[in-house]
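TICKET: design request
STATUS: open
ATTACHED STRUCTURE:
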């Protein structure tokens, strides 16, 4: 049977996948099987399917995810608009890339559809993939633009340790809370003195303190204070490099009577690092030639960061993160335009065909 991306999309948006992706994954597997494909689900919950051409050639991967953020918003089809949770993030891109996977005429090489189960949380599915590809098209709402770069995101805690004392005798201790002021100044100055230079397309990185915790009693000089920081990185900064440089920079701002350390927030998978794919790479040119929009950075962190370390990677799909009225993805008013879902499928199909001709 012929795959209908709009029917698939409307059904997919109606399936709750904010807490458990089992039903949505089963629907995807059944759809692929009905189209004559033999998909498999790996130990990490990824849905994988492969098509191969008659001759040797590059390996191209179409990737997106099936999980959504809570709460579930029921599907509503209103003319050319589909509303509901996941309509643009990322079941619209899933419908488009599924169309490309199923409809593209493959002369040579290999095409893989890799759909992950938990992009919105820890990305354990994507972290477990080892696809050894030559190019990746990652489905997210880009308004049909070609997003060839994105900032990374790191999160960690700066811990300042002083000496506890009675508040009536403050000079007998070393207040960790008082040390917060110079440390905040040091955080503010980090990118002016230590951080990477402004990136051509992503601009400057950001480093923001988001949570401060300290003190145990109202009549005690506090021995410890913690500052949580949010880092949005740009190339060439790495997770390890940022850790080492930030800790060394901040330590130079506190008194000798105190100590300071920085540790990343514990998580099951690596943080998403910044990436930038050259505009002249084959996968960018293929989407350009197929009629995609402008080349620009993507506005959010995605699993594309994991794949970009392997091969040229772009983010592409129907829908937008936000419009003139405000947030769209992850919002109560999440929506996507049906003609854009169809057009995304046509563009992705043509791009894959040009890469695997």
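STATUS: resolved
RESOLUTION: sequence designed for all positions
ATTACHED SEQUENCE:
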């Amino acid at each position: 049977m012929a795959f209908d991306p709009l029917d698939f999309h409307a059904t997919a948006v109606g399936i709750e996948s904010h807490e458990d992706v089992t039903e949505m994954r089963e629907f995807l597997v059944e759809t692929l099987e009905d189209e004559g494909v033999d998909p498999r689900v790996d130990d990490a919950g990824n849905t994988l399917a492969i098509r191969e051409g008659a001759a040797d050639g590059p390996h191209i991967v179409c990737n997106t995810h099936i999980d959504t953020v809570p709460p579930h918003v029921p599907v509503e089809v209103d003319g050319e608009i589909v509303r509901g949770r996941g309509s643009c993030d990322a079941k619209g891109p899933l419908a488009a890339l599924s169309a490309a996977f199923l409809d593209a005429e493959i002369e040579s090489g290999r095409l893989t559809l890799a759909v992950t189960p938990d992009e919105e949380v820890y990305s354990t599915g994507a972290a477990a993939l080892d696809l050894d590809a030559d190019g990746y098209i990652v489905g997210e709402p880009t308004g049909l633009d070609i997003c060839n770069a994105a900032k990374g995101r790191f999160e960690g805690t700066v811990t300042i340790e002083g000496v506890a004392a009675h508040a009536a005798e403050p000079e007998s201790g070393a207040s960790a809370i008082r040390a917060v002021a110079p440390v905040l100044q040091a955080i503010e100055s980090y990118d002016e003195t230590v951080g990477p230079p402004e990136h051509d397309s992503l601009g400057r990185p950001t480093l923001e303190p988001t949570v401060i915790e300290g003190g145990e009693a109202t009549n005690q000089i506090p021995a410890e204070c913690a500052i949580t920081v949010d880092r949005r990185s740009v190339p060439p900064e790495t997770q390890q490099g940022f850790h080492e440089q930030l800790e060394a920079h901040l330590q130079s701002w506190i008194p000798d009577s105190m100590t300071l350390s920085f540790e990343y927030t514990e998580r099951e998978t690596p943080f998403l690092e910044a990436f930038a794919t050259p505009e002249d790479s084959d996968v960018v040119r293929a989407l350009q030639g197929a009629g995609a929009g402008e080349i620009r950075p993507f506005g959010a962190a995605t699993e594309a960061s994991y794949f970009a370390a392997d091969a040229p990677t772009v983010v592409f799909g129907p829908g937008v993160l936000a419009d003139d009225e405000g947030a769209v993805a992850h919002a109560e008013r999440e929506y996507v335009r049906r003609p854009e879902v169809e057009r995304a499928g046509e563009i992705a199909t043509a791009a894959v065909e040009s890469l695997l001709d």
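CLOSING REMARK: The chain has two domains: 5-150+274-355, 152-264. The chain has a mean pLDDT of 96.
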